[in-house]
């Protein structure tokens, strides 16, 4: 069976890569894209894609659903729109595969309950790159032995959210494994606000934004006389595409929400 896929955010950095990925996949068909403004009737009209890309563009998910009946919605938009897109897709019975970051813990909880109650598959993947998933898993394992941890994430300067979804997910995974743990000197004091970064259960998260970067993260784990650095670099957005295609296939087998690709890879 061919999987009918819709993409929200198709004109973006990730969205454009995802369009080509789905177009090239013989098991999938790109049946629609969702935009928030009129950009033409088809993908080709946006001038970002070849003339042969005749996929229709919609600005309303209900109309998109009615006309094209997608199985899956891949969301690569922005932190402001992702919650609304995901909940609307779930209500319509379209399985969301979400790469967009910026969910609050409460939103994740609500979507998890909704997907479970209504038995609709959903994948929320803060990072689709296999190397990044391994970085998170290795850091989670190492935290048992080296619980003093600081995370430094580094991204291009057009990124809207900080800390990154990957840094949040890494902290979340580590936190579930280690005891509540104070770090640094108990009397330490910031003489400039933000100098010690964000605090996630005692772990410090630092966000770097610079032109030239794509997506990079280091997990620093310190112990007596030693430092373990676990680092991952995405040098281009092709690094995320195997994970996008895998998620589109896997979500078809799910009847609940899965948060993080570490839960679906063997
Ligand atoms: N999970 C992962 O592996 C990755 C996730 N991301 C995340 O994906 C998201 C998109 O990243 P980029 O492609 O770099 O951003 P971008 O800004 O290049 O693209 C976002 C696109 O979404 C469109 N958009 C915004 N609001 C919309 C709405 N309401 N409806 C439809 N389209 C809308 C914009 O017009 C734009 O074309 C970000 O949240 C980013 O953090 C980025 C890279 C990898
Ligand atoms: O905005 C990005 O570019 C990325 N966003 C995701 C995140 O917030 O972790 C994934 C990757 O780091 C690229």
UniProtKB/TrEMBL annotation:
Q: Does the entry feature the keyword Oxidoreductase, yes or no?
A: yes
Give the gene that encodes this protein: dapB
Q: Which UniProt keywords apply?
A: Amino-acid biosynthesis, Cytoplasm, Diaminopimelate biosynthesis, Lysine biosynthesis, NAD, NADP, Oxidoreductase
Q: In which pathway does it act?
A: Amino-acid biosynthesis; L-lysine biosynthesis via DAP pathway; (S)-tetrahydrodipicolinate from L-aspartate: step 4/4
Start and end residues of each Dihydrodipicolinate reductase C-terminal domain: 131-264
Dihydrodipicolinate reductase N-terminal domain: which residues? 3-128
Keyword Ubl conjugation in record:
no
State the species of origin: Metaplanococcus flavidus
Q: Where does NAD(+) bind?
A: 9-14, 38, 99-101, 125-128
Q: What is this protein called?
A: 4-hydroxy-tetrahydrodipicolinate reductase
User: Assembly and partners?
Assistant: Homotetramer.
Q: Which protein family is it in? A: Belongs to the DapB family.
Reactions accelerated catalytically? (S)-2,3,4,5-tetrahydrodipicolinate + NADP(+) + H2O = (2S,4S)-4-hydroxy-2,3,4,5-tetrahydrodipicolinate + NADPH + H(+); (S)-2,3,4,5-tetrahydrodipicolinate + NAD(+) + H2O = (2S,4S)-4-hydroxy-2,3,4,5-tetrahydrodipicolinate + NADH + H(+)
- Active-site positions, per UniProt? 155 (proton donor/acceptor), 159 (proton donor)
Q: Where in the cell is it found?
A: Cytoplasm
Q: What is its EC number?
A: 1.17.1.8
Q: Which NCBIfam families match?
A: dapB (TIGR00036)
Q: Which InterPro entries match?
A: DapB_C, DapB_N, DapB_N_CS, DHDPR_bac, NAD(P)-bd_dom_sf
């Amino acid at each position: 069976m061919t999987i009918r896929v819709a993409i929200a955010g198709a004109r973006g950095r990730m969205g454009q890569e995802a369009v080509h990925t789905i177009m090239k996949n013989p098991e999938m068909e790109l049946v629609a894209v969702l935009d928030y403004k009129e950009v033409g009737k088809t993908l080709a009209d946006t001038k970002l894609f070849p003339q042969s890309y005749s996929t229709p563009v919609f600005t309303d998910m209900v109309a998109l659903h009615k006309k094209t009946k997608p199985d899956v919605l891949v969301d690569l938009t922005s932190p402001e729109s992702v919650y609304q897109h995901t909940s609307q897709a779930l209500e319509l019975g379209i399985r969301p595969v979400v790469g967009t970051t910026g969910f609050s813990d409460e939103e994740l909880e609500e979507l998890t309950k909704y997907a479970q109650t209504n038995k609709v598959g959903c994948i929320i993947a803060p990072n689709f790159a296999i190397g990044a998933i391994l970085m998170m898993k290795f850091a989670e394992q190492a935290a048992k032995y080296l619980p003093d941890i600081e995370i430094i994430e580094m991204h291009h300067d057009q990124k809207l959210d900080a800390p990154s979804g990957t840094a949040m997910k890494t902290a979340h995974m580590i936190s579930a494994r280690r005891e509540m743990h104070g770090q640094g000197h108990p009397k330490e004091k910031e003489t400039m606000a933000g100098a010690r970064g964000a605090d996630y259960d005692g772990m410090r998260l630092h966000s770097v934004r610079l032109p030239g970067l794509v997506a990079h993260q280091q997990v620093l784990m310190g112990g007596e006389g030693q430092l373990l650095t676990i680092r991952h670099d995405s040098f281009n957005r092709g690094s995320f595409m195997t994970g996008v295609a895998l998620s589109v296939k896997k979500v078809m087998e799910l009847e609940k929400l899965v948060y993080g690709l570490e839960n679906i890879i063997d």
